[in-house]
Amino acid sequence: MLYIVFRFLSKLKSYCRNKHYSEGSIAECYLVEECMTFCSRYLEDVETRLNRPSRNAGLNDPNFAETYLFQSYGESIGKVEIAELDERSWSEKDVNDEVKWLSHGPNRVVKRYSAFIINGFKFHTKYRERLKRTENCGIVVNSSITSYASARDSNPVEGNVEYYELLTDIIELDYYGKWKVVLFRCDWADVNTAHGIKNDQFGFTMVNFSRLIHTGEQLIDESYVFSFQVKQVFYSKDPTNEGWYIVLRNTPRDLFDMGNGSRDGIVERSETLPFLEQNLNENIPSTSTQFQWVRQDVDEDIYEL
């Protein structure tokens, strides 16, 4: 609760433009913002704070989305680089059964991006962030797997395993102009052993990227994931354990927790609360209508002063 109060006080402090008259400066800026917010509700075809699109809204064109497979469409950021996959990377794409049925497979000439917006998150590759102080390359993928207690176990147990990764490359496969698929290539932390993942004394998940899995050195390695499968996390370096990072989960900027309902299936999001449209003509009488401005239900009195 105190965090909300301190955050509002910090916002009021940012309104101060004249330190000699700080109270009046804050009050004036606050009134200006309230007036602009109120007037912006009646503006049409003008982008305001109430109707501007989300920062990480991505693509909303259904016709353009139909050209992508597996819901992997999103909005690319920055310069597009045309690259050709090598033999090792190309062999990794052939193991997917859902792609094999396509006639000739994807074109080896692919588009490569350094940033991408999807699922309400903005992702950057490690190379793009090498000179930045911000972090947007952390990824988590929730995968459903089947486990066996032993070789003789006939009752497998299904469960979910979270894989923590660092985004290294973003490519877009093109099936000769008919279909497109966006894939993320990552450095995968070893979540199968205690050398790659553990929980600290406070219950936080910690990962270590010194030992990686699915590096692409073997044909069975799967270093790529579909873009629609990923969610964003942040990795905070642990000062006491060298090489270990604490996992901090993130939610989309424009996603609000409205209670106990499930967040799955949320398609439309908004950074601001919707306001009802108001028509000023409803409260202003028409000039063509005759109104009676004098009361007829009381007797007229004359007073002398």
Proportion in helices: 10-25%
**Oligomeric state of the chains present here:** single chain
Largest sheet properties: 11 strands, antiparallel
**Using only CA atoms, what is the Rg?**
29 Å
Number of domains: 2
The secondary-structure class comes to: alpha+beta
Secondary-structure element string:
HHHEEHHEEEEEEEEEEEE
Give the beta-strand count. Answer: 14
Tally of individual helices: 5
**Separation of the first and last Cα atoms:** 62 Å
Strand content: 25-35%
Mean of residue pLDDT?
Answer: 77
Shape: elongated
The unreliable regions are: 265-275
Structure description:
- Pfam families: DUF4216, DUF4218.
- Residues 171-247 form the DUF4216 domain.
- Residues 2-56 form the DUF4218 domain.
- The protein is an alpha+beta fold.
- It has 2 domains: 2-44, no CATH class; 62-148 and 159-249, no CATH class.
- The chain contains 5 helices and 14 strands.
- Strands 2, 3, 6, 7, 8, 9, 10, 11, 12, 13 and 14 form an 11-stranded antiparallel sheet that branches. The chain has a 3-stranded antiparallel sheet with strand order 1-4-5, with no helix packed on it.
- Mean pLDDT is 77; it is low at 265-275.
List key phrases describing it.
305 residues; single chain; 2 domains; eleven-stranded antiparallel sheet; alpha+beta; three-stranded antiparallel sheet; 14 strands
Short note summarizing the structure:
The protein is of the alpha+beta class.
